[in-house]
């Protein structure tokens, strides 16, 4: 059957093909810019990394960086959000896969197992960038605002997680929900991960296992039960 019978002209097919190629090329360029920026920020720090340097090493012109991602602070924010989500786009904390899995189970140990595994994977991506953010936030107002925002979001998310964990009735009676949140907030931090994994050489598997075991011991009462592999 001819294209004319199907209502499609060769020109329409060519335009769709060209559009798909342009979209794929744009996505590849964006990914290359982000990967280059991440590497330079971690290696050289925020202040020393320029858009010109990112563009040069990503084999694009500076205007392409601005048009594709944005200014340097916006670029850094995107990297933080992607490290948090673990996908190619930002995802709110409550909508991430692990958060939904935590809410779906009533087993307190399973909740902690899922979160320990998730935070280990997140920090493997996030910690090197977050340490750069911490240093830069002391001198850059835009990065200070980002630091404060991420800190607030972490705190809010931990209160939600602590309340969910407490709702199982398996948490220690001598701990308030805020105290449970504070313990998790401290131990899920980039600083905590960096001390054990980066500085002390722990494997990611060992770190995740440690988090799960420590949280169970610190937060659950002696009757807290459940199979974390279920």
Folded structure, characterized:
With 230 residues, the protein is mostly helical. It folds into two domains: 1-70, Orthogonal Bundle (Arc Repressor Mutant, subunit A), CATH 1.10.10; 73-230, Tetracycline Repressor, domain 2, CATH 1.10.357. It has ten helices and no strands. The protein has helices at residues 10-44, 51-58, 62-68, 72-85, 97-104, 108-136, 141-166, 177-187, 190-199, 204-219. 26% of the residues are buried.
Main sheet characteristics: none
Number of helices: 10
CATH topology of the largest domain: Tetracycline Repressor, domain 2
Instruction: Please identify the top-level CATH class of the largest domain.
Output: Mainly Alpha
Can you count the beta strands? 0
Overall mean pLDDT stands at 90
How many structural domains? 2
Output the helix-strand order.
HHHHHHHHHH
Residue share in helix: over 70%
Spans of at least 5 consecutive residues whose pLDDT stays below 50 are 225-230
Strand proportion, as a percent range, falls in under 5%
Overall CATH architecture of the largest domain: Orthogonal Bundle
Structural class: mainly alpha
- The N- to C-terminal Cα distance equals 55 Å
Question: Any idea what the radius of gyration is?
Answer: 22 Å
Characterize the overall form: globular
């Amino acid at each position: 059957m001819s294209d004319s019978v199907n209502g499609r002209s060769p020109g329409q097919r060519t335009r769709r093909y060209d559009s798909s190629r342009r979209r794929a090329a744009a996505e590849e360029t964006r990914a290359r810019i982000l990967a280059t920026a991440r590497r330079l920020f971690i290696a050289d720090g925020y202040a020393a990394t320029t858009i010109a340097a990112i563009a040069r090493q990503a084999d694009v012109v500076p205007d392409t960086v601005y048009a594709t991602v944005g200014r340097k602070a916006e670029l850094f924010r995107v990297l933080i959000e992607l490290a948090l989500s673990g996908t190619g786009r930002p995802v709110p904390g409550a909508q991430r896969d692990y958060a939904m899995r935590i809410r779906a189970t009533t087993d307190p140990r399973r909740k902690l197992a899922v979160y320990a595994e998730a935070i280990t994977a997140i920090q493997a991506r996030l910690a090197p960038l977050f340490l750069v953010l911490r240093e830069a936030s002391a001198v850059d107002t835009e990065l200070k605002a980002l630091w404060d925002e991420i800190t607030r979001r972490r705190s809010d998310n931990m209160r939600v997680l602590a309340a969910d964990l407490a709702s199982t009735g398996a948490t220690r009676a001598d701990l308030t929900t805020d105290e449970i949140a504070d313990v998790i907030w401290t131990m899920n931090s980039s600083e905590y991960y960096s001390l054990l994994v980066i500085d002390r050489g722990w494997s990611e598997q060992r770190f995740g296992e440690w988090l799960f075991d420590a949280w169970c011991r610190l937060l659950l009462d002696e009757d807290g039960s459940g199979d974390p592999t279920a």
